[in-house]
Design goal:
Number of strands: 7
Structural class: alpha+beta
Helix content: 55-70%
Order of helices and strands: EEHEHHEEHEEHHHHHHHH
Distance between the termini: 75 Å
Largest sheet: 7 strands, mixed
Length: 361
């Protein structure tokens, strides 16, 4: 039931009739014409999931994929249902914030908490802020079963989308699947938008005189890592939605208003994919520009060092010449000291003026 890791909703002809449907009653409701059932299981145990799979006749391989680690987004058609894997995305904090420590505790009574308060928190600017929540969906003829292996996605927004249009709910489980995928893709757009803003902020730092700082390099590396992770879950969504469109007859929404909804969803997926690819090119350009600016700054420093070395060499050369044990102009007389001093000052000033005019100093 709701609150115990399992959330259920039962509609009949698009009207909500029951919320807390016991799992043992799920197969009975799925056999009733006009019924539409949604079951959401968060962090299920193997026993709970396999018992539900046995009652509903779910494919064992799909059930294994629902709890396995590292599954990529996909849609697979089985004999009695369609199995879909997708990911919800979110970013923790802003670009300049260190990534939260996943092993940190917030319990004031814990020794680790007191120890962390006694020392400054380490900055982890290079760690990814991207959080992924995998959602597996079993699309049945009269229902939808969703499985979250790590509860982190709020399904309340999805439920609101479903209930906004009871006429679409009457079309069957395709409505539930569309609402779920549409919410996930909107989340992808939000994540891509935030990364786009972060890249623009990073670009503004490039020419503020601090382009080669360690923090800028760490932030660039973090953005590249986050975009690579995001790309792995956004790009396969094209094939997911395309597979659903190919099997819309089996899902029962061929020739209905849901066809247009899924076509629009496919367009959104393409836009999110293209946006992600463009950001990948942008962050690569930022990284290359950072290296170029670093080389330019190094060249500037080398020119300055060379200019000052040439100026410092002048008094060294002149004092060395006048320090020889041989007669020279002004040898043994006070005028020799003034002649050497004047030579040092005049030649050093001439070199300084020359280097300043050529922007070496």
């Amino acid at each position: 039931m709701d609150g115990d890791g399992v959330t259920t909703r039962l509609w009949r002809d698009g009207v909500l009739v029951e919320k807390n449907v016991p799992l043992e009653d799920v197969p009975r409701h799925l056999d009733v014409d006009g019924s539409l059932l949604w079951v959401d299981v968060s962090d299920p145990t193997h026993a709970t999931l396999f018992r539900l799979a046995e009652d509903l006749g779910l494919d064992p391989h799909a059930v294994e994929d629902a709890v396995a680690h590292g599954e990529r987004p996909k849609a697979t058609r089985h004999a009695s249902h369609t199995f879909v894997v997708a990911y919800a995305t979110s970013l923790d904090g802003s670009m300049g914030d260190p990534a939260p420590d996943p092993g940190a505790t917030t319990d004031p009574a814990a020794p680790a908490y007191r120890a962390s308060r006694a020392r400054p928190a380490p900055t982890r600017l290079s760690q990814s802020r991207l959080r992924l929540t995998r959602i597996s969906a079993f699309v049945l003829p009269r229902g939808l079963v969703t499985v979250q292996t790590r509860a982190g996605f709020d399904m309340a927004e999805v439920v609101e989308r479903w209930e906004e249009d009871p006429e679409l709910l009457a079309l069957g489980p395709g409505t539930l699947l569309h609402g779920l995928l549409d919410a996930l893709v909107d989340g992808h757009f939000d994540t891509v938008q935030r990364l786009d803003d972060d890249i623009e902020d990073l670009e503004s730092r490039l020419f503020d005189g601090d382009a080669v700082s360690r923090e800028t390099q760490q932030l660039t590396f973090r953005l590249r890592k986050e975009l690579v992770q995001l790309r792995r879950v956004v790009l396969p969504m094209r094939e997911v939605v395309n597979t659903v469109l190919r099997h819309r007859a089996e899902l029962g929404h061929e020739g209905t208003a849901l066809d247009a909804e899924f076509t629009d969803l496919y367009d959104h997926v393409l836009r999110a994919t293209e946006w992600t690819e463009s950001l990948r090119d942008m962050v690569t350009t930022v990284f290359e520009t950072t290296l170029s600016l670093q080389d330019a700054r190094l060249n500037t420093i080398m020119k300055k060092l060379t200019g000052w070395a040439a100026i410092i060499a002048v008094p060294t050369a002149i004092t060395g010449w006048f320090g020889q044990n041989v007669p020279y102009p002004g040898f043994g007389r006070p005028v020799g000291v003034w002649l050497a001093t004047a030579s040092i000052v005049l030649v050093s000033l001439a070199l300084y003026a020359l280097f300043r005019r050529r922007d070496w100093l």
